[in-house]
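Posted in: Structural Biology > Protein-Ligand Complexes

Title: Requesting predicted complex, nicotinamide-adenine-dinucleotide in pocket

I'd be grateful if someone could produce the C-alpha cells for the following input. Sequence and ligand are given below.
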Amino acid sequence: MQSFDQKVAFITGAASGIGLALSKALNAKNCKVVMADIDGAALEKEAQALNGGTQMVRTVICDVTRQKQVSAAADKTMEVFGRVDLLFNNAGVGLGGSPGLIPLEDWQWIVDINLMGIVYGIESFVPLMRQHGDGGHIVNTASMAGHATMPGMAPYHATKFAAVGYSETLRQELAPENIGVSVLCPTWIKTNIHKTGANRPTANREGNDTVKSSGADKVFAQVKSLVENGISPDVFAELVLKSVQANRLYVFNDPEARAAIDMRHQQIQADYAACLKDLGLA
Ligand SMILES: NC(=O)c1ccc[n+]([C@@H]2O[C@H](COP(=O)([O-])OP(=O)(O)OC[C@H]3O[C@@H](n4cnc5c(N)ncnc54)[C@H](O)[C@@H]3O)[C@@H](O)[C@H]2O)c1
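-- Reply #1 --
Done. Output follows.
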C-alpha cells in the first residue's frame, strides 16, 4: 500500500501509546480512522483532539477479549466508512511473575487480550477486506519479547511469540489476496504499558498470598524506567507506516536488541546440529 489518503483504518488500543500515535499519523496522512479501545473516556478525549470537526476520526468502545464487541466494531466501521483497508491489532497488556505463582486468572487475561484479541480482529475484518477485493494491510503488535526472552516475563513472551508466529502464517496465507501483514517487534516505547498490570484480574486482591508473591509487581517496577526512557510513540508510528508502504514483515526499532535474536538463533542451530549428530544424520 503506497498511499493512506482516503483509506480506512481500524485500530485497537487507540486511546494511548502506540495505537494513539498510529491514529494521529494516519489522520495526518488523510486516512479515515476508527479508534477502538476499552477506555471510553480517554478514547473520546483523544479523538476529539484529533478530529477538529472533520469526521475523519470515529470511535468505538471495544474490549478485544469479547468477540461480539470486535464484530460489532467491524459493523460500525462499515456503517460509518463503508470499507476497511487497514487493520491494526494493537491493544495489549503486560504480565510477569514466577512460574507456579502466577494466578491462572491473570494468565487467561493476558492470553485473551494479547492473542485472542488479534484472532477476533482477523476473523472479523479479513472478510471485509476480501469484500472489496482491493487488498489491504494488517499490522499486529507483538514485541521484541516475541523474538527473545528474559526471566520473569513468561506470560508476556508466550503471547508475543504467538503473535509473531500467527503473523508469519497470516502473511503467507493472505499474500495471494494482496493483503499484506506486518508484525511490530519494538523494545521500549514511551507509553503507559507498564501501568497495565494494575488492570489484571487479581491486582487488587488484598491478602491473597499467591498474588503478592507472584512477582508481577516487581517485574512492572523494573519495566517502568525502561518504558519511561523509551522512544517516542510518534517516531515509532512513522516507522510503522513506512514499513506498511514497504510491505515489511517485521518492524524493529532497537539496535541493541538485535544481538538477542542472534543469540537465540545460534542456540537453535547448535541444538539442531547436536540432535542430528546424536541421530547419526550429520
Ligand atoms: N511500550 C512498549 O515499550 C512496548 C514494547 C513492545 C510492545 N508493545 C506493545 O504495544 C501495544 C500497545 O501498547 P502501548 O505500549 O501503546 O501501551 P498503552 O498502555 O499506552 O496502550 C494500550 C492501550 O490498549 C488498551 N487496551 C487494554 N486492554 C484492552 C482491551 N481488552 N480491549 C481494548 N483495548 C484495550 C488500553 O486501554 C490502552 O489504551 C501492546 O500490544 C504492547 O504489548 C509495547
